[in-house]
Automatic annotation (TrEMBL):
Signal peptide (residue range): 1-20
Keywords, alphabetical: Signal
Domain Outer membrane protein beta-barrel residues, every copy: 8-200
Lineage: Bacteria, Pseudomonadati, Bacteroidota, Cytophagia, Cytophagales
Protein name (record): Porin family protein
Length: 200
């Protein structure tokens, strides 16, 4: 896992160096940057009925870089820490808290200098997992090793570049690896992200 994260991080910085030499567009559109925001995740799949699982609010934060392949197309690697999971509609407010390092590789298409759409694959590496619940005014947590360590999926979204290097975006994460590694349950990580970024 550490080698994969390091590889993508090196790619991000390498693409930034290439981009710095060849970049001829508005600073708000490309370069190296930081991004963070809110997560709204739950479990999806045929064995995760909507009336049993609710969106759980988490957060994400990390770095990215844009490598322009043309005047309107850019490749964007990134590395983010991301808190996902779900909440259950049951007594005790049980919830799953799953912490990952997300490593997306996105292709951005700039419709205008401000508006862009993007999509691409993402590998998510589990760093920790906890199941929590409240009973009788007290709470308890249970760590588990039953969660799949690597979640492969893809990301789609839309973004907009603001003045002064700022950018905003909304995206959807579609996990394709089952959450539970020793189970036949058709349950996956699915959720939305809302982000604010800054390009240097």
């Amino acid at each position: 896992m550490k080698k994969s994260i390091l590889l993508f991080a090196v790619l991000a910085f390498f693409s930034f160096e290439i981009n710095a030499q060849n970049y001829d567009r508005n600073d708000a559109i490309g370069g190296f940057g930081i991004r963070g925001g809110a997560n709204f995740f739950t479990f999806g799949g045929s064995d995760a009925p909507n009336n049993d699982y609710d969106n759980r609010v988490g957060f994400h934060g990390g770095i990215y870089s844009n490598l322009f392949l043309g005047s309107r197309i850019a490749l964007e690697p990134g590395v983010y820490y991301s808190v996902k999971g779900t909440q259950y509609d049951a007594v005790g407010d049980p919830r799953a808290i799953l912490n990952y390092v997300d490593v997306p590789l996105l292709l951005r298409l700039y419709v205008t200098d401000g508006l862009n759409i993007f999509a691409g694959p993402q590998a998510s590496f589990l760093t920790s997992s906890t199941f929590e619940a409240n009973f009788g005014g007290s709470s308890f947590s249970l760590n588990t090793d039953e969660i799949t360590k690597t979640d492969l999926g893809f990301v789609v979204g839309v973004g907009y570049n603001l003045p002064k290097g700022l950018n905003i975006q909304g995206s959807y994460d579609y996990g394709t690896s089952p959450v539970f590694k020793n189970s036949n349950a058709d349950i996956y990580n699915r959720g939305f992200k809302v982000s604010l970024g800054y390009s240097f």
